[in-house]
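Problem: given the chain below (175 residues), write out its structure.
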Amino acid sequence: MIDYSILNEIVDLIKSPELQRELLPAKLVFMFFSVLFFAEVVYLLFTSSYLKYQFATDFKFFLNWQSATLQRIAKRWKKIQKRMGTRNEYEYKLAVIEADDLFRDILEEKGFKGKTFEEKVKQIEEADFPNLEEVLEVHKIRNSVVYDPNYKLDFDQTKQALGVYEKAIKNMESA
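Solution.
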């Protein structure tokens, strides 16, 4: 059997008025610093831009009618289109590669499985996806860009390729 008398004596010692009276100054000091630190945290939260940033970001997503996925896709697409304004072949190549990657990511999010891009695209029914063959042709351009460092890509080819990817992305979003 457990002897609770020792525990009772310890609790009685802690609750004793004499000990509480002697600990009162320490309690007051700890309470003062607790209030001071709490006030400092509140002050820093309101004077820093952290809360403003978090609130503005959440509020923007709340007001925007698009889902977070669509916003992410739109942001990536704007970055891809921005590359077209540089009039630089290197940027054109990157734009085609990034557009292909974006479309591949969308396919994966929609549940199309496969080791290669072609395997994923072949799972799409042509009736639901009118520019399926165009996507496969543009993907060949992407492969040429990636695997042939001497492959030349001009503005018109890039614009046409991005147009195909844009149409394909819009078809996937509506599917």
